[in-house]
């Protein structure tokens, strides 16, 4: 892909999307989508569908490992997932999410973790949560692109008092804007805004020179991100209410449930396997 390519969704096959292409998209006013991915098959599907950025999120804690929150997931658990997604894609820019406890101590710890993600998992950028300008500066200073994450930050859910909208009120909105500015000044190539009022996200997007990525932040950010299991309707009802900002584009839970039920029935009845499936 070159700077002359008119769209993030129309570049040559096999040519990676780069952070500069996201910047060019913002300058053109072109919106784009980001999805999470944690395995080779979804990564390949999303890549072929033209999703330009895939996030191997610490949301793997909830959606792969079955933890109650994102807090327990480790670097050792994340790295194989990132490698799988990178290896299965040809075009998408792959962002690895730094787990809780792997960057908060300061710039040195943050850089060491980011280097592991780049060397061992071969991703193209990393993401970290919260107001961390010193960590961002250290990582970008080493040549590693950083995606910032502000507003509601799941790794800080206990400090924030649960899943609550952030940035409501004049002072809180000003804080989000200032933190976003400082993230960009430190070198972030984009900023995720999670559960931020739409008018605040609109203002941040208008004032920042880099792309903003919304999740529960309204329609005026430069891009949107969803957890793929939410987007595709894989979450069971027992997992609790679907977040307000999620739109389900399929019902994979029902599809897989019906397929598994049919398979089990055919095995019980002796109608599978048949001669067709036998050597």
Automatic annotation (TrEMBL):
In terms of one coarse class, where is the protein primarily found? cytoplasm
Q: Which residues take part in binding 3-methyl-2-oxobutanoate?
A: 58-59, 97, 127
Kindly state which reaction or reactions the protein catalyses: (6R)-5,10-methylene-5,6,7,8-tetrahydrofolate + 3-methyl-2-oxobutanoate + H2O = 2-dehydropantoate + (6S)-5,6,7,8-tetrahydrofolate
Q: Which GO terms describe its biological process?
A: pantothenate biosynthetic process
GO molecular function terms attached to this record: 3-methyl-2-oxobutanoate hydroxymethyltransferase activity; magnesium ion binding
Q: Which GO terms describe its cellular component?
A: cytoplasm
Q: Which residues form the active site?
A: 194 (proton acceptor)
Q: Where does Mg(2+) bind?
A: 58, 97, 129
Q: Which InterPro entries did the record assign?
A: Pantoate_hydroxy_MeTrfase (IPR003700), Pyrv/PenolPyrv_kinase-like_dom (IPR015813), Pyrv_kinase-like_dom_sf (IPR040442)
The pathway to which it is assigned is:
Cofactor biosynthesis; (R)-pantothenate biosynthesis; (R)-pantoate from 3-methyl-2-oxobutanoate: step 1/2
- Its Enzyme Commission number(s) read 2.1.2.11
> What role does this protein play?
Catalyzes the reversible reaction in which hydroxymethyl group from 5,10-methylenetetrahydrofolate is transferred onto alpha-ketoisovalerate to form ketopantoate.
Q: What is this protein called?
A: 3-methyl-2-oxobutanoate hydroxymethyltransferase
- Organism of origin is Catellatospora bangladeshensis
Q: Give the source lineage, highest ranks first.
A: Bacteria, Bacillati, Actinomycetota, Actinomycetes, Micromonosporales
**Gene name as annotated:** panB
């Amino acid at each position: 892909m070159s700077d002359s390519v008119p769209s993030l969704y129309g570049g040559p096959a096999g040519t990676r999307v780069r952070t500069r292409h996201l910047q060019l998209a913002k300058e053109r006013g072109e919106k784009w989508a980001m999805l999470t991915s944690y395995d080779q098959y979804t990564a390949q599907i999303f890549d072929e569908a033209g999703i330009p950025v895939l996030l191997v999120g610490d949301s793997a804690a909830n959606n792969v490992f079955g933890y109650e929150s994102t807090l327990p997931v480790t670097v050792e658990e994340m790295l194989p997932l990132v490698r799988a997604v990178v290896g299965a894609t040809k075009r998408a820019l792959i962002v690895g999410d730094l787990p809780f406890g792997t960057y908060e101590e300061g710039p040195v710890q943050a850089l060491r973790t980011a280097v592991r993600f780049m060397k061992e998992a071969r991703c193209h950028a990393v993401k970290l949560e919260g107001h961390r300008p010193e960590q961002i500066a250290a990582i970008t200073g080493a040549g590693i692109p950083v995606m910032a994450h502000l507003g509601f930050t799941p790794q800080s859910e206990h400090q924030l008092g649960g899943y609550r909208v952030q940035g409501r009120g004049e002072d809180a909105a000003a804080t989000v804007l200032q933190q976003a500015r400082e993230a960009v000044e430190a070198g972030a190539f984009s900023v995720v805004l999670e559960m931020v009022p739409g008018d605040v996200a609109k203002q941040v997007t208008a004032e920042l020179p880099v792309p903003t990525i919304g999740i529960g932040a309204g329609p005026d950010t430069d891009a949107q991100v969803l957890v793929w299991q939410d987007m595709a309707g894989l979450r069971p009802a027992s997992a609790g209410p679907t977040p307000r900002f999620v739109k389900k584009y399929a019902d994979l839970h029902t599809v897989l449930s019906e397929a598994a039920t049919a398979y089990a029935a055919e095995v019980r009845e002796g109608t599978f396997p048949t001669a067709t499936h036998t050597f």
